[in-house]
Write a structure and sequence with these properties.
The complex is a heterodimer of chains A (about 350) and B (about 290).
Chain A (H helix, E strand, L loop, with lengths): L1 E6 L3 H8 L4 E6 L6 E4 L7 H4 L15 E10 L2 E6 L7 E6 L1 H15 L5 H8 L1 E6 L25 E5 L3 E6 L2 H9 L4 E2 L2 H17 L9 H7 L4 H8 L7 H4 L7 E8 L2 E8 L19 H20 L9 H5 L6 H7 L9
Helix pairs in contact in A: 7-10, 8-10
Chain B lengths: L17 E12 L2 E8 L2 H6 L7 E6 L3 E6 L10 E6 L3 H7 L6 E8 L5 H4 L3 E7 L3 H13 L7 E7 L8 H9 L3 E7 L9 E2 L2 H8 L6 E6 L2 H13 L7 E4 L15 E2 L2 E2 L6 E3 H11 L1
Parallel strand pairs in B: 7-8, 7-11, 8-9, 9-10, 11-12
Antiparallel strand pairs in B: 1-2, 1-6, 2-5, 3-4, 3-6, 12-15, 13-14
Helix pairs in contact in B: 6-7
Classes of the chains: A alpha+beta (about 350), B alpha/beta (about 290).
Chain lengths: ~350, ~290
């Protein structure tokens, strides 16, 4: 439901107001790379430069490195103290629809069977404010993955660019409650809805890269043992892991201990199936060869996730294409999977 | 889909270990030890339950955590056991610990051997090396409830006589008239009077009948890979073959990603599998 709007020049005021209730995160280049960072209270320059962040918003819920608990050895033996959970409510402003969808996909794993307390405590406390794309990248293929660049059901509020203003769509009850308490918003005019519709259509049409995923799960299953194919696909990969580390639906992590004298910390950190150590056991490694690791990455997203959760774990954000140092291209790979299923396309 | 057992979470957090105390250490082979241990918290010690085949995550705090099956039987509960081969960082640290040392323990995790399915069946246990650890939990479980199962065959092997684990169990099962036990080593060795040959080959010689039978296989990946074809040759169908698998793990609960075989996580969907579940991927992913 769309019923409010806000001027672009009033975004700072709006975020300031929300900042009294939430810790506001917004796109920032402060660290040298575009990522969601705590809003500095004034800068809205991102409205001009922001297409999407390099670091996906998953980093706000599954940080690159995160303390899990502390332990200490005393006279009575070991004592264990969990790290303080994130109690502050956070608001992420400007999340793109592909990344919002990705969060919903990652949620499935962290909610499945055993709930992950670190991820879910942050996630449950956070409000996502989406912002539709107006200028998608050449590498984006969201529209082929069931995502619209300018619409989202995976956020609490959705902002649509209509020129000098944003229309605000209330997507969830939490979003609606926030808008009810927010001061200084304008009522939308009759013409605004038409402008928003046009803005969404323009964005949609600008996503020119297409990917046909029809029957991909079965095609991958049938080609799983086609070593020659996978070796060809993996040939130029340098196993840097960037396509997984910065993928908004990748969530793999490592767990390690750090010990200083008698006090220690257990922490987790991002890991990648692209790294040989990831699956290495002392006596053998089921994915020593690069082609096995590349196969794992592709199949996890397009075959195994659909088998388990009935959804492809890719939202077409295009990061793995934009950021790959050797121009490895997931869309080319998916298109080139041999069709051994016997089903004619 | 797995249903989480949240009963034994430490402080309500699945990643937090309980403290356990090592009570006894048995040198199984040069490089393999069995640890007898108990949970430090007395209430939890009484309440704690698990099933044969399940595993847990064991910590040497400051070094890290690694998964091992609970190798003792739930029918024998004055303590718990796990067996460790000294091969990596955590296992080396475990081998440096002595009686009285404290370790972290969280679990039990994963699937267990389907006792209802095994009821009344002829059971064929096929084990190699330290792979006997999860099998022995079930074997003692079966022996302690001997009436509800039919024949029991055990084919167990190791590279050399010195590498045979759980020799006290092997002796006990050898003496047990209700159990048919065959032990083998890979090559001839001085003083060795048992069979000679790798486990899959000896299994083929022993040729247990597939009729009303279930084979339960655990050992090094290469043994598992060569054992399935032998069982198929003997007439075992995929659903009559169970195995328990090992992979590098970190979380133990289906999150961290690395222990998958195809769409299946060894930690969450396993470690106990029927061959039906894994046959599409096992040839190239295990």
């Amino acid at each position: 439901m769309v019923n409010k709007k806000v001027s672009k020049k009033d975004i700072a005021k709006l975020l300031e107001q929300w900042g009294q209730q939430f810790i506001v995160f917004a796109p920032s280049r402060e660290s040298g790379v575009a990522a969601f960072a705590e809003w500095d209270g004034k800068d809205t320059g991102f409205l001009d430069w922001y297409r999407n962040t390099v670091v996906p918003p998953k980093a706000s819920f599954l940080p690159p490195m995160e303390e899990m608990f502390h332990f200490q050895k005393g006279e009575e033996g070991y004592s264990i103290e969990p790290s303080a959970g994130e109690e502050n409510k956070r608001l992420l402003f400007g999340v793109r629809p592909c990344d919002a969808r990705a969060m919903a996909i990652v949620d499935m794993t962290f909610k499945d069977a055993y709930e992950d307390p670190y991820y879910l405590s942050k996630r449950k406390n956070a409000l996502l404010v989406g912002m539709g794309c107006t200028n998608p990248c050449e590498s984006c293929f969201c529209t082929s993955m069931g995502v619209s660049p300018a619409e989202s059901a995976d956020v609490d509020l959705m902002f649509t660019d209509i020129g000098d203003e944003f229309l605000i769509e209330e997507v969830t009850d939490r979003g609606k409650e926030l808008i009810a308490k927010t001061k200084g918003l304008k009522e939308m005019n009759k013409g605004d809805e038409a402008k928003a519709k046009q803005s969404k259509k323009t964005a949609y049409d600008r996503v020119t890269r297409k990917l046909d995923t029809e029957g991909i799960k079965d095609r991958l299953l049938a080609s799983f043992d086609d070593q020659e194919y996978w070796e060809k696909v993996a040939a130029k990969c340098i196993s840097c892991g960037i396509c997984t580390l910065l993928c908004p639906t990748c969530y793999c992590f490592d767990i390690n201990d750090e010990l200083v004298k008698q006090e220690g910390t257990r922490f987790r950190s991002w890991d990648s199936c692209g790294f040989p150590l990831y699956s290495k056991m002392p006596m053998e490694n089921p994915r020593q060869e690069k082609w096995r690791r590349v196969r794992q990455k592709v199949c996890h997203k397009y075959e195994f996730y659909p088998m388990t959760f009935n959804v492809i774990a890719c939202t077409g954000c295009g990061r793995c294409i934009r950021l790959c140092p050797v121009n490895w291209d997931i869309t080319r790979v998916i298109e080139s999977v041999p069709n051994k299923t016997g089903v004619k396309k | 889909m797995t249903v989480a057992n949240t009963r034994f979470f430490a402080q309500g957090n699945v990643y937090l270990p309980h403290i356990a105390v090592i009570e006894k250490i048995i040198e199984e082979t040069p490089g393999v030890r069995t640890y007898h241990f108990n949970l430090k918290d007395e209430k939890l010690r009484k309440e704690f339950t698990f099933e044969s085949g399940q595993f847990a995550q064991y910590s040497v705090l400051g070094t890290g955590e690694a998964p091992f099956c609970i190798s003792s039987s739930p029918t024998r509960r004055d303590h718990l056991e796990f067996a460790v081969q000294k091969v990596g960082r955590v296992t080396n640290a475990l081998h440096r610990l002595g009686v009285g040392a404290e370790i972290g323990f969280r679990g039990p995790y994963g699937s267990s051997f389907p006792l209802d399915f095994l009821k009344g069946k002829n059971l064929v246990f096929v084990g190699g090396g330290i792979g006997l650890a999860p099998l022995r939990s079930l074997i003692w479980n079966v022996i302690d409830n001997r009436d509800i199962y039919n024949k029991v065959d055990i084919v167990y092997g190791a590279r050399t006589p010195a590498d045979l684990c759980f020799k006290y169990d092997l002796e006990a099962w050898d003496k047990d008239k209700t159990v048919k036990m065959v032990t083998t080593v890979d090559r001839e060795a001085e003083g060795w009077t048992g069979k000679v040959g790798v486990v899959p080959k000896i299994l083929e010689e022993v040729a247990p009948s597939a009729k009303e039978a279930v084979a339960i296989v655990c050992g090094p990946p290469i043994m598992i890979r060569f054992t399935f074809p032998v069982l198929e040759k003997l007439g075992f169908k995929p659903e009559q073959m169970l195995t328990t698998l090992e992979k590098r793990m970190k979380c133990g609960i289906g999150k961290c990603g690395r222990c998958n075989i195809g769409n299946i996580y060894v930690c969450k969907d396993g470690p106990v599998f029927s061959y039906t579940q894994i046959k599409d991927f096992v040839s190239s992913e295990y």
